[in-house]
C-alpha cells in the first residue's frame, strides 16, 4: 500500500465516523480535479463542505416529507386555479412562502362543499411549505382526535399536544366530520387553545361555523374555539361546483348517452 492509499483509507473511515457521507463519496473526484487544476486548498475544502450541506438539506426535507403524511400526487402544479376563482394563485404562492404568517401562528380556513378541492389544495400548500423548509403534518381531524383522546386516557394529552409543536403547520382535514362522541372530551379545543397565536393550523370544513356545534361539547366552547381560530386567519370560501363531479361529466362527454347504456345501443346505428 502506498502512503497515498493509506491516507485515502484513513480518510474514508474518518468521514464515516464524522457522518459526512457526501464528502466521503465526492472527495476522490474533487481531490483529483484539484490536483490537476491546481485549486487552492480553501477552494477544495469549501466545495466539499457545500456539497455536504446541500445533501443534508435534501435529506432533511425528505425526512420532513415522510413525516408530513401529505396526500400523494396533490400539488399546486396539478391544482386548477381557474376552477376556484375566489382562490388566487398569487395569494396561495404568497402563503407557501410562509414567513408572513407561520411565524406568528396565524391560521388558514378552507370552507366548501365536498369535491371542490379542499383536501387537494391544503395538501399541496403543505408540500410547498415543506419544500420551503417548514414542518407540516396533514391529518384527518377524526384520526387526530382519536389519537388525542387515547392520550388523554393515558394521562398524556398535554405532552401529545406539545409534541405537535414541532410542526409549524397542522393541517386538520374535515373538521366537521368530528362526531358527537369525539367532541365530549374536547381534546380538539385543548389543541386549538394550545396552538393559539403560537403555531399555525390549516383547517378544512364542508360546514360553515354555524354548523360546528357537533364538533365541540357545548355552544360556549364552540364559540371560544371559532374565536381563536379566526382571530388571525385567512379564510377561503370555495363555494363552487364539485370538481370531482365536473371531471366525471367531462369524461362522459356532452350529449352522449348515460353510462348505463345497454349493449343494444352498440348495435343500434
Ligand atoms: P374536497 O376535499 O373539497 O372534498 P378534494 O380535494 O378531495 O375535494 O377534490 C376531489 C378530487 O378532485 C381530487 O381528486 C382532487 O385532486 C380533484 N380536484 C378538486 N379540485 C381541483 C382543482 N381545482 N384542480 C385540480 N384537481 C382538483
Ligand atoms: Mg376533502
UniProtKB/TrEMBL annotation:
Residues 246-269 are annotated as: Disordered. One of its GO terms (molecular function) is ATP binding. Pfam families: IstB_IS21. Residues 104-236 form the AAA+ ATPase domain. One of its GO terms (biological process) is DNA replication. Keywords: ATP-binding, Nucleotide-binding. InterPro entries: AAA+_ATPase, DNAC/IstB-like, IstB, IstB_ATP-bd, P-loop_NTPase. Gene3D superfamilies: P-loop containing nucleotide triphosphate hydrolases. Belongs to the IS21/IS1162 putative ATP-binding protein family. This is DNA replication protein DnaC.
